[in-house]
Amino acid sequence: MKLGLFMMPLQPPEKSRTQCFDENVELIVRADQLGFTEAWVGQHHTLAWEPIPANDVFLSNLIARTQNIKLCTGVSIVPQHHPANIAVRLALLDHLSHGRIMCGFGQGGVPTDWELFDLPDAKTQGLMTVEGIDMVTKLWQAEAPFDFQGQYWHIKILNPNAELGIGQLLKPYQQPHPPIAMSIVRGGSMAARMAGQRGYIPISTNLVPPNTVANHWETYSEGAAEAGLPTPDRASWRVSRTIFIGETNDAAWDHVLNGTLGRAAAYLIQLLKDSNILHLVKAHPDVPDDDVTVEYFLRQLGIIGDRDSVLRQLQDLWTLTGGFGTLLMMAHDWDDKAKWVASMETLAKEIVPALPTLQKV
């Protein structure tokens, strides 16, 4: 199994933003040194707990600092950007990194972000996302003159000057384009089905319990079958989980419940509640909202404990899901740097090498 990183990030609002960014950079540099294969970085505009509004800019700062790790947008929020802007910025990042990027696309789920950009209802944003992805992939291949008329964007260059290169868009380093991924949240997700239909990389969120994660692959595979594609390879599947390894089970749980991770869980519970999607984290729909406490949240969604406990929980996740190619460790605030670094190193050096691997057919 491969090991990657997903950075929302999750850091307390009162913490210096500069310190947050410096620690995030150091975390990805350490991940590269430990053999992590990829780092996905989120994008939000109005969340103090998740303070990276331009993940492509952040990732560009890591190109010269790292050697092998793939640098990935997780995700570019399509309704909040013009597709032409997304296309050329990601193409530039692809060139600067010499092809070390992967591109995640998504809709976004933050009401204050929607308000900031004066966006329509969530369903319409979903349609905008699909159209925007199509526009980006067209622009990565198009030569002017072109005229792409959509429902939400009309993108055209009708009077180029080929001799002088006027009207020419920057194309990606990787051809025909960088690998494309989609974040999957809900069971029976339309994003999972669309990803399967198009052969995009599926990334299962850390915000749903394991039984919902297992459903993601079922829906993704159904989408591939509907599109007449071959049976998808589970090696392409990324599964995100919050992981913390302590010296003992009690020590691990004491740290997460009484540290910044516990505060981050409380923040996410409130955010999901405000967005009317708290049901996503529940192991069973009959669980009352008031029972979704920080401890419930972390026990349902997290993988926390000593070495043996974490290994057993990850093996159980593997069995339940049927196997996947890359485990994405969620990045969390370094409220105790030594403990978080030790957890990360134990995961990379001891736990992941002991996990099952997919058998090639």
What does the secondary structure layout of this molecule look like, with pairings?
Blueprint lengths: L1 E6 L9 H17 L4 E4 L13 H6 L9 E8 L5 H14 L4 E6 L4 H6 L5 H18 L6 E4 L4 E4 L22 E5 L5 H9 L2 E4 L5 H17 L11 E8 L3 H10 L1 H15 L19 H8 E4 L1 H15 L4 E5 L6 H15 L10
Helix pairs in contact: 3-5, 6-7, 8-9, 9-10
Describe the structure.
The chain has 361 residues and is α/β, with parallel strands linked by helices. The protein has a single domain, classed as Alpha-Beta Barrel (TIM Barrel), CATH 3.20.20. The chain contains 12 helices and 11 strands. The strands form 2 sheets. It has an 8-stranded parallel barrel, surrounded by 7 helices. Strand 5 (146-149) and strand 6 form a beta hairpin. The radius of gyration is 20 Å and the shape is globular. The mean pLDDT is 96.
